[in-house]
Amino acid sequence: MVAPSPEFLAQSRVPQIIAGNAVVQIIGTLFFLTRSYTRLFIIRSWKSEDYVLTVGWLAAMGYSICQYGEVSQGAGRHLAFNSITGTTSPVTLQKYSYAAFPFLFIALIFTKLSIGLSYIRIFYHDVLGRRLVQGTMVLLVLSNVANIGEVMLACNPIQVYWTELRPASKCITTQIPLYVNGTINVLVDIGLIATVLPRVLKLKLNNRQRYVLVGIVSIGWIAVAAGILRLVRVGMTLGKPGGIVDAPWDTYDISIWSSSEIYVGLVCAAAPGIKPLVSKILPKILGSTTKSRSQSRSQTWTADANPGSIELSLKKMRRGTIGSVTTNRSTNDAKSTGPYIEVSRGVDVDLLDDDDDGKEESGIIPGGGGDAGIHMTSETTVPTTTTAAARR
């Protein structure tokens, strides 16, 4: 057997593994922490999807720690280098690899569940959309739980996974479970995008907010691409003739694409929730959280000589100083604090995330109460004319 050359032994993919994991980890963590700050200190509302997303982020951090642990034990270097130098432990490397699996599955499941819970709450009155998202979530959980069990119990006894480096005589192949899991995760991402994007396009928003919302939802395509690339690389690596001959070297980018899929999903889940904070810092970019920056068609109600009659005029109006109204679009109920009523001149949503901050002037789209809809605000302009009937 020919001894490996010094140049061969000096080859390293460690920088690529560290950079590929660290960049997406930093970006995903910043989005998660920013969302958490916004929910806790600006909106002061912590919902079920926030708890779920926190579990997903913790699992993602656990997966990243395992990747860095694998690097410390020889991942990204040739097997020959690890054997000759004796500075790394193949057993410890396999332990980190084994521990990474549950973190990977949990992170993927919980980030997608958080997205699904947000969409169910916001589009609750869209029965078809709600059922589609719920069905997707059930499929996600059931398939991943089955795959976790199959991968974690692949060896008998379990410890030979690391003590004997997964001998074929004692361990079943995990290639098929990984294919199934990866395919379902990609299909779940596509299903969520296909369900939500058409409904986002139907929201009554100004163009700036619409573009931002569409962009946030479309980030999911990056997670789809990362998931597909991970599947391709797993197939290419595990499908080599004679099996994997240089595992620490060959599998380096599987780690990168797995981390990318996790943290891009985390960004998709966290991004809508940071809009109130961004609006405070850059209100002219995303619009205020309490009023729309755009003017829309307005309806002015004025009284005439016949009691109960209404005259509607459609025009653009500036903000008035007399009178106000709270309007519920689903019931057409209006509560006026002035002698006349005008409804309304703008709609604003917090980018698929309602504030529930107790503002006095608020409405619900498309109907219902509580957290079920998207909160919007209405401002009024009141004419100060006096009718003949009022003078008498």
Description:
It is a multi-pass membrane protein. Its main location: membrane. The chain is mainly alpha-helical. It folds into two domains: 6-279, Up-down Bundle (Rhopdopsin 7-helix transmembrane proteins); 288-392, no CATH class. It is built from 15 helices and seven strands. The protein has helices at 6-10, 14-43, 48-72, 79-85, 90-122, 127-152, 160-163, 175-201, 207-218, 220-238, 247-250, 252-270, 275-281, 283-286, 388-391; strands at 298-302, 311-315, 325-328, 333-336, 341-343, 363-365, 374-376. The strands form three sheets. Strands 2-1-5 form a three-stranded antiparallel beta sheet, with no helix packed on it. Helix 3 (48-72) packs antiparallel against helix 12 (252-270), helix 5 packs antiparallel against helix 6 (127-152) and helix 6 packs antiparallel against helix 8.
CATH architecture of the largest domain: Up-down Bundle
Q: What's the total helix number? A: 15
What strand line-up does the widest sheet have? 2-1-5
Stretches with pLDDT under 50, minimum 5 residues: 288-325, 336-382, 384-392
Spell out the helices and strands N to C: HHHHHHHHHHHHHHEEEEEEEH
What is the structural class?
mainly alpha
Per the CATH scheme, the topology name of the largest domain is: Rhopdopsin 7-helix transmembrane proteins
Q: Tell me the Rg in angstroms.
A: 28 Å
Number of domains: 2
Task: Look at the structure and give the CATH class of the largest domain.
Answer: Mainly Alpha
Task: Please summarize the sheet with the most strands.
Answer: 3 strands, antiparallel
Write down how many β-strands occur, each being a DSSP E stretch of 2 or more residues.
7
What is the share of helical residues? 55-70%
